[in-house]
Amino acid sequence: MGWKNCSKNSRRLIGQYGLKEADKLRILHVLANSPPDTNGYAVRSHMIAKHQNKLESLEVFAITSPFYPKKESMIEDFSTDGINYTRCVHPARRKKVTKLSHKIIKKRTRISRNSKKIESTIVKHPLNRVFDFFYYGVFRIGRLVKKPISLVYKVWEERVLMKLFKAEIEHFIVENNIDVVHAHTPYRVGLPAQKAAQRTGKQFIYEVRGIWEETAVANGRWRRNGLAYSRFRRY
Fold first, then answer.
1. Cα atoms found within 13 Å of the Cα of residue 200, Cβ hemisphere only
2. Is residue 70 a contact partner of residue 112, using CB atoms and an 8 Å limit?
3. What does residue 83 show for φ and ψ, rounded to 5 degrees?
4. pLDDT confidence bin for 152, thresholds 50/70/90
5. Angle at 201 (CA atoms; ends 5, 65), nearest 5 degrees
6. Start-to-end CA span in the chain (Å)
7. pLDDT of 45-61, one tens digit each?
8. Which of the chain's termini has less CB crowding within 10 Å, N or C?
């Protein structure tokens, strides 16, 4: 019964868009990440796209964000179950960048080639104690000064990446003649998608799956009303 209703609704949408019965409604899913990752977000995204694609009246596309430079899975396009996931690649993962802002981000982004941590027990020498004094004492002041500067940089970097993402979404919409843009949580995925949809005159849907800042507080990663929490909350 559910599938019959979905098919009926999709045909109704085709009529609203002035398309012929033989035409397919082309939907673009804008995502933070996707398969081959197996986190809950990626799995849910794929299930939605996969089952929409089963409807004869719909054709589904997907594009992912540039916010995960350390993930090898977010570099190359990936296809599974008839869904192709196009990547918006982070500047650090691009062979060549031309914009100054992208060059700065590329230079400052450190990607570890070996994520394994090597642990060892070291007997401290008296000189190590002198080093500890300066590192944890005197140099701590420098690290405290550096923290707000790092935060300003992160906010700037996010805006640059959102602008890059918007441009690539907009290009994808035009190239593939998309009818509907369906963006998913969080805001840094939703806002670029919304602006791209507005610029191209396409219908826009934003799916809120959860409140990410509250999840971070529950996981102990962020403090409620902290700087990171407040930044996410503002959007």
1. 25
2. yes
3. -110, 125
4. confident
5. 80
6. 38
7. 999 999 999 999 999 99
8. N
Q: Which amino acid is at 166?
A: K
Instruction: Identify the burial level of 160 via C-beta atoms within 10 angstroms of its C-beta, where 0-12 means exposed, 13-18 middle and 19 or more buried.
Output: middle
Task: List for the chain the helix, strand, coil content (%; round to 5).
Answer: 50, 15, 35
CA distances (Å), origin 58, targets 14, 50, 110, 150, 209: 9, 11, 41, 44, 23
Locate 23 and state its tokens.
């035409």
Give the CA distances from residue 142 to residues 128, 131, 134, in Å, rounded to whole numbers and listed in that order: 20, 15, 11
Indicate the pTM of the whole model: 0.78
| Residue 72: CB atoms within 10 Å | 10
- Tracing tokens 């939605």 back to the chain, one arrives at 48
Per the CB < 8 A criterion, the answer to whether 24 and 13 are in contact is: no
Tell me which amino acid residue 197 is. Answer: A
Please tell me whether residue 32 adopts helix, strand or coil conformation.
coil
